[in-house]
Amino acid sequence: METTTSFDPEILLLPFHDAGHRRLAEDFGAWCDTRTALWEKVRTMDPDDAGRTLAAELGRAGWFAALDPAGAPEDGPGAGAPGDMRALCLMREALAYAEDLADFAFSIQALAATPVMRFGSEEQRRRWLPALARGEAIGAFAVSEKEAGSDLAAVSLHAERTGDGGYVLNGGKAWIANGTIADVVVVIARTGEGPGPLGLTAFLVPAGTPGVTAERIDALAPRSFAHLSFTDVRLPAGAVLGRPGKGFVVAVDLLERFRMTVGAAALGFARRAADTALAHTRSRSAYGGVLFDLQLVKASLADMEVKLNAAALLVARAAWECDRGNRGYARHSNIAKVHATEAAQEVVDAAVQLLGASGVVRDGVTERLYRQIRSLRIYEGSTDVLRLAIAGALDMRRAARTATF
User: Fold this and answer.
1) Which residues of the chain form CATH 2.40.110.10?
2) What are the pLDDT digits (tens) for 295-352?
3) What does the pLDDT look like over 121-165, one tens digit per residue?
4) How far apart (Å, rounded) are the C-alpha atoms in residues 113 and 68?
5) Which of 115, 286, 327, 375 is a good FRET partner for 220, with 20 to 30 A between their CA atoms?
6) Residues with catalytic roles
7) Topology classification of domain 9-137
8) How many CB atoms lie within 10 A of CB 374?
């Protein structure tokens, strides 16, 4: 098979992937390769306008189709099982290699639609999923607060029951991707059915609901980010996603699934940086030859290749474990995100070093990658928090192994 440079064909041929995934990689990679003009255009746009443009383009092309299981095609763009994490990882890898803003638009749309697919009522699915799949509506997922990031149990946005069975929301959410352009926001709020994580509920909040306001914030890599405020926001009982008191389950289920996709995006960024560095060192004259002839340069490129291979294998395994129904997939998802994002930061930094002064010129490939990669080590579970989770799972695994003997 022929694939674009955003994928390692040898990784795709491993048993982690099937023929459908390889076909997706070829088709989607080729689609990304033919959108160079679009990528250049959105880089010059306001982040909000870029987000809307990319969501519409991805929707028209059918790449969001799996977000609406009822209307998903059996073949063609976006075809595949809803919630196929291997497919999501491949698509994020390709988009991150091609254009960060496109990966951002794709990933946040999938992040918002997935809890509706997995926990929404029939009415909620009918109302939101078709529009999200067409790119005509934009979604967001709001769990973080200024005083509650990785600690979900610390969420304080309050939802008070009303006499008619509805709720009134008061409080705020922070650093919400697509917060300035979302049409619907999945919001985790405290309803008090129990202490800590047991007292959280997920809600579907249309962005135009009275009392919802967005304050735009500027990030290191420009994109749609906002703090959201909720002031006496009235919601009907039908706005609850899943069941009251199950918001922690909704949030954890989503984050555990999507951490591996963050690793896939990191892999796309890192592979683009490594390819850029390799091309530069092969053509840059130095010391009577080219940079690639220098042993230290070869060592740096070799280290990049080792890190890329390890990250690709960990991401593929995590997605495969999830797709095959292994209940312990979350540990693999955490491992994949930690290694892939940390390794990608190192690969991008090394690429900048190899390019020298040209590597830090604003809007050059490696300069953009340097800004874009940093946030991946923080969101959807920071490296430090996930290391604690990985370590915490060691005793459980040791006990399980001991019990089998």
Assistant:
1) 140-245
2) 999 999 999 999 999 999 999 999 999 999 999 999 999 999 999 999 999 999 999 9
3) 999 999 999 999 999 999 999 999 988 777 888 899 999 999 999
4) 8
5) 115
6) 380
7) Butyryl-Coa Dehydrogenase, subunit A; domain 1 (1.10.540)
8) 16
